[in-house]
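Hi, here's the filled form for the chain we discussed.

Project: internal
Contact: R.S.
Residues: 157
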Amino acid sequence: MRRRDREIGDFEEMVDIIRRCDVCRLALNDIDYPYIVPLNFGLRLEEGEIVLYFHSATSGKKLELMARDNRASFEMDCGHELVTDAATGKCTMRYASVIGRGIIEPVPEEEKVGALRLILDHYRREDFPVNLPALPATRVFRLRVTEVTGKANRARK
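And the returned structure, exactly as it came back:
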């Protein structure tokens, strides 16, 4: 990382950033170019490892790409604020971000409801029930994160 002053090395701080984000951009391996898709997500920590959960329809490009190659990268960011200094003409952007990579796997049928519950909980919708009749038309998958880094610009002017 070029800007070591912005690097986040603390695992708990990276998890906190993930909890504050509302979109995860998943990058999948396509033939000529990466395929990036923004997704809603849920988070679970399993023995100190990050596991991200996603849902989709039962067919589509991302599912085809995942079946071909289960390696993926992700990015999420939050806390955006443009900071300007009219006297000097300088500006910067405040932000916090996490990027990483891991292995995608389908969630077994018996774990789908729990995984969907994690997604709803991430968006603070603990009161909203999982739509059980929609389960047959829903695919749920998870990304077991194998590598993660964080970066933030907290600077005031």
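Let me know if anything looks off before we file it.
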